[in-house]
Amino acid sequence: MNKIVKNTLILTAITVVAGLLLGVVYGVTKDPIAKAQEEAKQEAFRSVLSDAETFESDTEFDADAASALLKENGYTSDDISEVAEGKDASGETVGYVVNVTSHEGYGGDIDISVGIREDGTVTGIEMLSISETAGLGMKAKEADFKDQFKDKNVEKFTYTKTGESGDDMIDAISGATITTNAVTNAVDSALVYFQNELGGGSNE
């Protein structure tokens, strides 16, 4: 009996100490991890909206309202998770970064940052998170695909498998139509939000 009590006390002590150590480790690493995540996000913001010097999160952004807006426009598989306002060195707004999560990816959700200038021009896209098939859908991370959206001022994009030309046409990734569709719809979702909530720009 005494042996059982002794072993129980020992296990309890080990558990308590382990818990305390985990708490200490979490406390030590929490801030650096958060800082690294924020820096990665800021780097993505700068890559898609290079005209901006700083980025401020839109405190009035309403995810539920954004979701309803997308659904009204036919984008039922996308969610907008964050909107940031990009400002130049003088503090003037030069555009926005809209973070979109697509639930249409072949390998799971795809998180994308979309940069949009004040006039509605898409300045670039960047994958924040993607887990598509290597050699196929993962080509969405490559410049050859992403740059098709860059510096284009259109109402919406459409992907093509036949090589149709036009600023609004995106060449589909060979063997990865699902990924192409997911990314294209995500960018279009960002444009819908911009056009309805952030000033609209001009497509003339």
Automatic annotation (TrEMBL):
Keywords: Cell membrane, Electron transport, Flavoprotein, FMN, Membrane, Phosphoprotein, Translocase, Transmembrane, Transmembrane helix, Transport
GO cellular component annotations of the record: plasma membrane
Class of the enzyme per the UniProt entry, highest EC level: translocase
Pfam family, one: FMN_bind
Its membrane topology: Single-pass membrane protein
GO biological process, any: electron transport chain
NCBIfam families associated with the record: rnfG (TIGR01947)
Subunit text: The complex is composed of six subunits: RnfA, RnfB, RnfC, RnfD, RnfE and RnfG.
Protein name (Swiss-Prot/TrEMBL): Ion-translocating oxidoreductase complex subunit G
Organism of origin: Mediterraneibacter faecis
Gene designation: rnfG
